[in-house]
Write a structure and sequence with these properties.
The chain is mainly α. Helix content is 81%, strand content 0%.
């Protein structure tokens, strides 16, 4: 029987192990035995603390969303609470767009945590489960809404649909450096995203963002 006094350590180890196992094998192929072995805990801890594999997977998704919100939550709140008017508002929108893109570039492409999370997020994009609602509502939609707001503010064009298309394009430019990392590293003969290489990535994406928002839609 699992002892409660070990709950924080046991739960943390299971959560950490589950992120890797679900990311590498997917929900269907991952087994509770694999997760327990990776976390070096008794397999009985999974139903005891999480109710089973499904409950553990949902906890993993909640954890990923919470961590991403910690990275960008303050910026998202600032964007939501700001009214962008006149030239100073347009400049502020540009600065906030650059800030939020830089934050995601360093988290998604430049951090080990981003690498681990992205495996699960990519699987959910290809084979969405009921947990995808948490991902979309928890951070994807807020980020898309924020980028759309900034795009309309910087371009001076109030077209939510076009702005959302452009926001998705910008988000895709960030994500490609994680999901296509091996191709990019080999194609550009990179080390694997050193600080200097991340700066190159940042400069390209931010430059594209400014170009996209300053070019009228046809």
């Amino acid at each position: 029987m699992v002892k409660k006094k070990n709950a924080p350590d046991t739960k943390d180890r299971l959560l950490d192990a589950a992120i890797d196992v679900f990311g590498r094998h997917g929900f269907d192929s991952a087994t509770t035995r694999m997760i327990a072995k990776a976390g070096n805990v008794n397999i009985a801890a999974i139903p005891y603390y999480f109710g089973g594999k499904g409950g553990l997977y949902q906890t993993v998704i909640d954890h990923i969303v919470d961590q991403i919100k910690k990275e960008a939550g303050e910026l998202l709140e600032q964007i939501d609470e700001t009214t962008f008017t006149n030239d100073s508002g347009r400049q502020q929108a540009r600065e906030l767009m650059q800030a939020i893109l830089e934050r995601f570039i360093h988290f998604i492409a430049g951090s080990e945590q981003g690498q681990r999370f992205s495996r699960i997020l990519l699987r959910e994009q290809m084979f969405p489960s009921s947990a995808y609602d948490t991902i979309f509502e928890g951070f994807l939609k807020p980020v898309l809404d924020a980028l759309s707001t900034l795009i309309m503010a910087t371009s001076g064009k109030s077209d939510p649909r076009q702005a959302t298309f452009k926001a998705m394009t910008l988000m895709g430019q960030v994500l490609i450096f994680r999901v296509a990392r091996e191709t990019i590293v080999r194609g550009l003969d990179l080390e694997g995203y050193s600080p200097e290489e991340l700066e190159e990535i940042r400069a390209v994406i931010v430059g594209n963002a400014l170009a996209i928002t300053s070019t009228p839609s046809q």
